[in-house]
């Protein structure tokens, strides 16, 4: 039995009485499974019996695919760990054939990749330093030296990793080594202008986010804003999506659009487009770091 039939909402549930001073810790549970009776009851009972307080609960009942997606944020005794909770919850997950995970307050470690365009990188660094990104930028990797000064001024390590047709395989292997060495949870392609190999895309499946202008596939190739100007577009947009082997076809996390008119030339369109790209990417990164994005085949469920 489910709590609601709408996309998302917050519910208040009765909680067990807690006495004495108990240090509290925050967690998030995300899960997806085939819709059936008893799922929400099993989850809330599990949390109630362990003295947890539910702070936020969102779910989406997909009637077309007959699946349930759920995100529950809760707090409770700090002696608990995600691994321990996963082990205790496994019997429930097996009963409902759930794909699930528990997370604590540990921030996701981010590796940002960039080429010559720095607007998305600059925006991510600004939000990270202000504490609103909800993740930690641990490393910036680039195939150009263009943004070294900006990155190092922010106190982040900058790695120059040039790529040529002859060195592409070695460069991608080095990237995977950096992911392991720095305990990276999320790779962000902030206008990184190299196409990743299929093998690298598969290695980073579900943990790499890309940003591109939403003119794709209508305005593929170089100079998209000039193409848009020539066609007299009325909306400028950007799309943040997970990286897959299908170029710019991965599950979409966020899209931003800005209305324009005939007075916008290519330069003005480019400036507006960069704003859209920075906004869409920062939201996608933040929601991923807050465990608000659940992959559902070729699409996503985003609990904002």
Automatic annotation (TrEMBL):
Judged by the first EC level, this protein's enzyme class is hydrolase
Q: Which residues form the active site?
A: 248
List the SUPFAM superfamilies hit by this protein, alphabetically.
ACT-like (SSF55021), Formyltransferase (SSF53328)
Q: Which InterPro entries match?
A: ACT-like_dom_sf, Formyl-FH4-Hydrolase_C, Formyl_transf_N, Formyl_transf_N_sf, PurU, PurU_ACT
GO terms under biological process: 'de novo' IMP biosynthetic process; one-carbon metabolic process
Q: Which reaction does it catalyse?
A: (6R)-10-formyltetrahydrofolate + H2O = (6S)-5,6,7,8-tetrahydrofolate + formate + H(+)
What is this protein's function per UniProt? Catalyzes the hydrolysis of 10-formyltetrahydrofolate (formyl-FH4) to formate and tetrahydrofolate (FH4).
The identity of this protein, by name, is Formyltetrahydrofolate deformylase
């Amino acid at each position: 039995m489910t709590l609601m039939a709408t996309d998302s909402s917050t519910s208040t549930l009765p909680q067990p009485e807690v006495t004495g001073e108990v240090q509290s810790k925050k967690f998030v549970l995300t899960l997806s499974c085939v819709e059936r009776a008893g799922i929400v009851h099993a989850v809330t009972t599990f949390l109630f019996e362990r003295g947890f307080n539910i702070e936020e609960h969102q779910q989406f009942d997909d009637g077309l695919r007959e699946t349930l997606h759920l995100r529950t944020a809760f707090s409770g005794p700090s002696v608990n760990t995600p691994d321990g909770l996963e082990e205790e919850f496994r019997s429930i997950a097996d009963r409902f054939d759930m794909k699930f995970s528990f997370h604590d307050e540990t921030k996701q470690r981010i590796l940002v990749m960039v080429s010559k365009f720095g607007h998305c990188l600059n925006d991510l660094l600004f939000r990270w330093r202000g504490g609103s990104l909800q993740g930690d930028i641990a490393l910036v990797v680039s195939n150009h030296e263009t943004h070294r000064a900006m990155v190092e001024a922010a106190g982040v390590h900058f790695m120059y990793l040039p790529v040529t047709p002859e060195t592409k395989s070695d460069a991608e292997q080095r990237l995977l080594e950096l992911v392991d060495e720095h305990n990276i949870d999320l790779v962000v392609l902030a206008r990184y202008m190299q196409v990743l190999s299929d093998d690298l895309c598969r290695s980073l499946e579900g943990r790499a986010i890309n940003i591109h202008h939403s003119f794709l596939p209508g305005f593929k190739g170089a100079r998209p804003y000039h193409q848009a100007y020539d066609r007299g577009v009325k909306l400028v947009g950007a799309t943040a999506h997970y990286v897959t082997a299908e170029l710019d076809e991965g599950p979409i996390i966020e899209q931003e659009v800005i209305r324009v008119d005939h007075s916008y030339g290519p330069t003005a369109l480019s400036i507006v487009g960069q704003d859209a790209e920075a906004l869409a990417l920062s939201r996608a990164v933040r929601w991923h770091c807050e465990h608000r994005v659940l992959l559902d085949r070729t699409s996503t469920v985003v609990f904002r």
